[in-house]
Design brief:
13% strand, two-stranded antiparallel sheet, alpha+beta, 7 strands, five-stranded mixed beta sheet
Length: 345
């Protein structure tokens, strides 16, 4: 049968200080007091054991003391505990020192000094406990606030992530309804594509990061539905850098931007509209640009869908930066530019 004794490494300095102090105590009594090693060891062990015990007791009492005026109350409690510790030490040591009148006289004469030393240690321990408890309370409060902030952030992210354009679903269902009579085969195909798209949407809602290639696959599902609706009028050209297909980005990021480009690019037109999506790496960032034809005089009223403001908020929650998305108008095109830092899995 073996017994294992483990000591918390954080308490080793305290244990080392106690042993050092007890050693100095024994050495001083023997060399300067002229007492035997045995009585010196007893004096050191009992006196310091009493002080240490009341230091611990003081720490427990502080937990139940009122916070108002706690330092004054701790001082009073320390005085009382120091007196009790000194009385106990004397009560135990006197019988041990029977026949050693010099030591008993020394014990009587050194009583004020012993009480002062006991008070110093017990009061100091009390102050340390007070500051430790305050620090622990601040740490617990900070952890609770951090945990609450994370939960709120996650809830907001999930809300923003699911806040896709509802008009897309309604328009798709209306298109299916129109095709059922005139082109039932195409309507059935569109129902299957919409089912695949919604299934992928639900799957992406549980993921925080996906590769760019998976996001492009999801985008292709969306575009296959839109091309059924708009036919030859819609031409989305993808210019992808194959070397950054494994770059991690937030899911459901590109679809609302392309949907926004389709909505504003095709509005008021009857001809073919080209929407360009470009990805490339510039330095340590992934650059994504989406452009669509833009005519200020022929734009629909602003909708209530996801929008660029929702996307900005989502990117800020994920990256803690406000400069990751920018828009501009250039040569009759509206351009949305995303610059995403590298995210490691």
């Amino acid at each position: 049968m073996s017994i294992k004794i483990s000591i918390d490494s954080t308490r080793l300095p305290i244990l080392g200080f106690i042993l050092l102090w007890m050693g100095i105590h024994v050495w001083g009594l023997h060399n300067y007091g002229g007492f035997a090693w045995e009585i010196s060891a007893w004096d050191s062990s009992i006196s310091n054991l009493a002080i240490a015990s009341f230091c611990i007791l003081n720490g427990y009492l502080i937990r139940y003391l009122p916070t108002h005026g706690i330092f004054n109350i701790t001082a009073v409690v320390s005085i009382i505990l120091s007196y009790i510790a000194e009385w106990i030490s004397r009560y135990v040591l006197v019988p041990i020192a029977q026949g050693d009148d010099d030591y008993v006289n020394f014990l009587n004469q050194s009583e004020p000094v012993r009480w002062g030393i006991a008070f110093l240690f017990i009061f100091s321990a009390g102050i340390i406990y007070i500051f430790y408890n305050r620090w622990k309370e601040l740490q617990d409060s900070y952890e609770r606030e951090t945990s609450t902030h994370v939960m709120v952030k996650e809830a907001e992210l999930q809300k923003l992530q699911l806040q896709l354009q509802p008009h897309f679903l309604f328009n798709s269902l209306n298109s299916i309804n129109a095709l059922i009579i005139t082109q039932p085969d195409k309507a059935g195909n569109m129902v299957q594509q919409l089912s695949d798209f919604l299934r992928a949407t639900l799957k992406r809602a549980d993921e925080k990061w996906i590769t760019l290639s998976k996001e492009i696959e999801y985008l292709q599902l969306y575009l296959s539905i839109e091309k059924v609706r708009f036919g030859h009028r819609l031409d989305v050209q993808l210019h992808l850098d194959d070397q950054i297909q494994l770059w991690l980005i937030p899911p459901l990021l590109l679809q609302p931007l392309v949907e926004n480009a389709i909505k504003f690019g095709l509005y008021g037109t009857t001809g073919r509209v080209v929407i360009n999506l470009t990805t490339q790496r510039i330095g340590d960032a992934l650059l994504i640009e989406i452009s669509n034809p833009f005519d200020q005089d022929m734009q629909p009223a602003e909708g209530s869908g996801f929008g660029l403001n929702g996307l900005r908020r989502r990117l800020y929650l994920l990256y803690a930066r406000n400069d990751l998305i920018a828009t501009r108008t250039e040569n009759g095109n509206f351009i949305v530019r995303l610059s995403l830092p590298e995210k490691y899995d």
